[in-house]
Amino acid sequence: MLGQETREVDRKTTAILKILSDSPGPLGSRNISTLLEEQGISLGERAVRYHLKIMDGRGLTRTVGRKDGRTITVAGLEELRNCLVTDKIGFVGTKIERLAYQTNVGLRSSTGRIPIDAWLIAREDYSKALKAMKGVFESGLCSSGMVAVAAEGNNLGDTLVPAGKIGFATVCSVAVNGCLLKAGIPAHARFGGLLQIREGQPFRFIDLIEFSGSTIDPSDIFIAGNMTDVIHAAASGDGKVLAGYHEIPMLSVGKADELLQRLKSSGLISFAVLARPGDKICEIPYNPEKAGLITLSGLNPAAAAAEAGIHVSNRAMCGVMDVTRLRPFNELI
User: Fold this and answer.
1) 103-158, pLDDT tens digit by residue?
2) Residue 92 belongs to a domain
3) Residue 246 in this model has a pLDDT that exceeds 70
């Protein structure tokens, strides 16, 4: 029982830290209590103050001003990243489902919101990054040829571009899941992986991480591990790129194929490979009730920049963006 009580305290601490990390300014116990209530956590002002005092003592929060306003500290941010890892198993899969549900882009009117991936680079690396990414967009080895750029102080989805940085955003492959969902086709995101490209065509997956068992986006892992070969794949047609594997009901293949063609025609996606009924795709075992769907990650350009020696800070699946903010990459050159 004691262990369970301690775990409940840790969960409440984590919830308070998350609220403070998402807030643009200090928050008092009353505001925190209200925001916790919205998450289904009943914790009165007095109880919140009790937890905050403990968190102050641990160096996770600090007071601001004369009242009980609090902000999260660097130690608090680190604790938020590390705490309750078992609770975060499947976090990536849940995030995919949430972003798919938030997708409401219109194919004919080119309006609405679309999920994005984003990454940050130093302002002085901008020209070098464009050069590194150019071939990726030209070869179509990205989820979409559309991109958004933001200077410091502006937002890309849920990401605020800090001082001295430039932010890039591309269409996240979850947009495909979202559009399929709106068309009545459930798409289950199963794996993120490294896809081997041979002679310009998808050949096989050589590494896979299951979304439902991961606390970190697979693309982040592969980029950080220097496991991609996106620049070479774009230049020669042979290499390793970031991709996702999804499944849809076999009976929906015809309708899904029509929708994917419309997405490609609209320019919202560049690449999607759908298995035909009874086919195996990129050596993924055949499931008689499901059809496989492969999409390319929106972070392939970020991987190319990293391969070129540029320090890149990735923000995979960082929210949704109004599609009107996107423009063709070639307009940046």
Assistant:
1) 998 876 678 999 999 999 999 999 999 999 999 999 999 999 999 999 999 999 88
2) no
3) yes
Measured distance CA(293)–CA(73) in Å, rounded: 42
pLDDT value at 91 more than 50 = yes
Q: Which domain holds residue 150?
A: 100-331
pLDDT the model gives residue 296: 96
Query: In CATH, what number is assigned to the domain containing residue 76?
Result: 1.10.10.10
> In this structure, are 234 and 136 located in the same domain?
yes
Q: Is 45 helix (H, G, I), strand (E, B) or coil?
A: helix
Nearest to 263 by CA among 160, 162, 174, 136: 174
pLDDT of 3: 43
Highest mean pLDDT among 85-89, 265-269, 280-284: 265-269
Residue 172 has pLDDT above 50, yes or no: yes
- Quick check: 133 and 329 in contact, CB under 8 A? yes
CA 169 to chain centroid, in Å, comes to 11
- Residue type present at position 298: G
Choosing from 86, 110, 139, the residue where a domain stops is 86
Residue 91 forms part of a structural domain: no
Q: How many domains does the chain have?
A: 2
Name the packing angle between helices 253-266 and 174-182 (round to 10°).
120
Question: Is 243 among the domain residues?
Answer: yes
